[in-house]
Amino acid sequence: MHSQERTAAAAGPTAATAAPYLAVHPLPEGDGVRLSGEVGLVTRSVWTDVLAGAVRARRCAYVLDLAGVAFVDVAGAEALAAAADRLGTGRRIVLHNPPRTLVRVLEMYWPGLPGIEVPTS
Amino acid sequence: MSTVTEPFVHPALFYGTTEEYLAGCLAFVREGLERGEPVAVAVPSHNLRLIEAALGEDAGRVRFLDMQQAGRNPGRIIPGVLRAFADAHPDAPRVRLIGEPIWAGRSETEYPACAQHEALINHAFTGREVSILCPYDTTRLDERSLADAYVTHPVVIDGSGRREESPAYDPDGLVARYNLPLPEAAGGIRLTYEYDADSLPTARHRSVAEAAQMGLAGERLDDFALIVAELTTNSVVHGGGRGTLRLWSEDGSLVCEVRDAGLLTDPLAGRRPAGRDQIGGRGLLTVNLLADLVRMHTVGYGTTIRVYLELPAA
């Protein structure tokens, strides 16, 4: 699933009105994925596919590099929390450079979720 | 003959003096403590200090919350204060709270949301073993607030402790009465933007850029981005696929208005706390938890929601 790059919108961002997009780039050795764009209504299915891939990956730590993600809405955070719950003991999703809004929503509704790790540096 | 009695108890306490306030509140708190019930007090800060001092050692067994902070947005009080405390004690035989959401100084813009909140408490706790006492300052609140307290509370207790059933009790009627068209924007419109699914990110980007220009910053600017995303996404999903957003400033607050063709039929929408495993139902809830004030008008042809966020002093 990670061998191909996918985007939600046929057209990429333009200068005037950026159509919603979320691009997925596999990380080396199946460690996880790097994402760019944003998580919202139109890109929801790409995001849930990524999360399903994280659950299926059977790795102790699956990385989501979110440095290129400007925003994750509340339903996107909800999908992430639900995926983290499905991981099972000892496994986790590691968020690299999550947008501040995502961290805020996770703290509001799912404080201390064991399946999610946010490295501090 | 046995009758089924409603376990939820929701009296208003009419007080005219500090002595009457303390007499009514302390009796309510002490009765709960004697029965081993979890007790919380959510009142304005000056009254919080009065109750805390008067309780002495017992204060350590009571949860105190400054209602001017935690309940600044009336729409936040049910999910963020009252049910947050009640739901945290599922095994208690009864949970007891003092909630004072209406104080002298609440603005004309805030008041309809305050009154609707008081009415909706009755729906939010029907069937639950919960007691909520709502103090009303009879010397400083206007006649309308006191008359409405008879409509939103089945029982009113006066300063001498006398309980009176309220003949005017009609919470649904009050919610409908304050479902009012919102007045014209008081400030110059800074942004008008019509959005649909594909332009949701642009609606958010433009709103956030404008809010930053108006002085909103840091965590509150992040909160605003979340609020705009949830309101506009709601329009696309539930409000006819599109909507119109407007931004302006009014009395030191940023005002964000969203209009769409949706109809809000659930009076408790955005006022139910979300369980950890719950999927959905966090959109309006997030708006209520983060905003300083939320006003709504919903009718057959559409819904208007206005969200207020205080701007930092220039």
From TrEMBL, chain A:
Residue ranges annotated for the STAS domain, each copy included: 33-107
InterPro entries for this protein: MlaB-like_STAS, STAS_dom, STAS_dom_sf
Top-level division of the source organism's lineage: Bacteria
Signal peptide: none
Protein name from the UniProt record: STAS domain-containing protein
Native species: Streptomyces fragilis
Organism classification: Bacteria, Bacillati, Actinomycetota, Actinomycetes, Kitasatosporales
Automatic annotation (TrEMBL), chain B:
Source superkingdom: Bacteria
Pfam families: HATPase_c_2 (PF13581), MEDS (PF14417)
The keyword Ribosomal protein appears for this protein: no
Limits of the Histidine kinase/HSP90-like ATPase domain: 196-307
Keyword check for Protein transport: no
Gene3D superfamilies linked: Histidine kinase-like ATPase, C-terminal domain
UniProt entry keywords in alphabetical sequence: Kinase, Serine/threonine-protein kinase, Transferase
SUPFAM superfamilies noted in UniProt: ATPase domain of HSP90 chaperone/DNA topoisomerase II/histidine kinase
Domain MEDS: 10-154
TM spans (from-to): none
Name of the protein in its database record: Anti-sigma factor RsbA family regulatory protein
Organism: Streptomyces fragilis
